[in-house]
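Researcher: Next sequence.
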Amino acid sequence: MYNVIDVRQSYLQNLIGQVLAQMGHPRESENFVHFSYEMVALTPACVREMGLKLEPGEEGKPYIEVSGRKGRAVKADDLISMLNEKSLREVRSRHPELAEGEALKLARAIAVAALRYFMVKFSLNTVIAFDFKEALNFEGDSGPYLQYTVVRLNSILKKAAPADTQAAEAASGLDLLDDKEKEIYWELVLHLSLLETQVEFALAEHELSSLAAYAYGLCQKFNHYYHLYPVLAEKDPRVRALRLGLVLLFKNQAEKLLSVLGIEIPERM
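Model: Next structure:
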């Protein structure tokens, strides 16, 4: 049994586990897990955007506590609704040609990814100061950035010729690559192979932030590689096949990883 309650409830949660053992339920006591986390707060900018008031001296604080007593009760529905609105504005600025229904669907997928990733990227002993701009950043440590990377992968594969894709599935022989590319290529393959180990570690340690950090690091590595070594523009078909093979491998592992994080992969970004 996992009780997801913040760290301020630790004393009571530990007490429940002890009582279970004393009442003759050692197995239940051992399996009673307090999944604790630090306080969830808002940045001053987020407080303003939610239409709430800042008190004198709070503007310079790194985070503002949510307090019903002070009239700062934030409903999850309101937060998600605002994320949807901000995401929809971004989608419309990038894709004005999209039909309303398609734009709404894409905005929702991005908003959910932004919120889910933001809530797990902080370690359990770190205060989560929610911020709309940071959560929806397409180029930083965010859910939309992960989505963008996989959308880029899918775009490469859609544009690839069928013959190139077939060759990629059987590609071998990294001696065709120069030393620098070979080193980065192997580093990516190694990190991709650690997916199951990373998931097992996150579960065993109850530290989901390690999985978020792993996902972000992977996407950074791929985007760096792709910037240095374009895939479809490569003229040597054997080298192109090797790079496409890495894209296929990355896509397979990245889709599994984003599925674990509960992040949907949209058609476009």
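Model: The mean pLDDT is 92. The two ends are 38 Å apart (CA to CA).
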